[in-house]
Design a protein that fits this description.
The two termini are 32 Å apart. A three-stranded antiparallel beta sheet has the order 1-3-2. 70% of the residues lie in helices and 8% in strands. It is built from six helices and three strands; from the N terminus they run H-H-E-H-H-E-E-H-H. The protein is elongated, with a radius of gyration of 21 Å. It is mostly helical and 158 residues long. The longest helix has 30 residues, at 94-123.
Amino acid sequence: MGMSENTYSEKSDFVDDFSLKIEELGHPRIYGQILGWLLICDPPHQSFPDLMENLNISKASVSNTTRMMLERGLIEKVRLKGERQIYFKIKKGALIEFMEKQMALTIDLQEITKKGLELSKKEGGIDLTRLERIHSFHQFLAQHLPELIQKFRNQHNL
């Protein structure tokens, strides 16, 4: 769509860099490719064929990955008036929702490590340094993440 070869190459490099980092987080590379593309594409909504063509991935890969991303609330379906085709775009607030899920896991880990500390103290004779450190870290995150997320929401009127 009128995108110069240079611009396409730069966008392709961005998608590659982004998808490699997403892969390091434990997600499939295609997951990162679609997410990365949806962050920089114009228009912000893309169809199956758009994703297949721009990312050079199969229809099955697009289908499986977008289904997973829809289930996780990262993207949403969009229908354009007069068109039968389904489009996908990044769901507004998806990053914050993702961080809130991470925060809930952090709070859970704080509780689990607290129980582990209580158990280890009761048993005695165990070096608690490692467990105390991880508990302290999750306690710190559980204490500060909610205020950071709220601060971000306030700054961006979310």
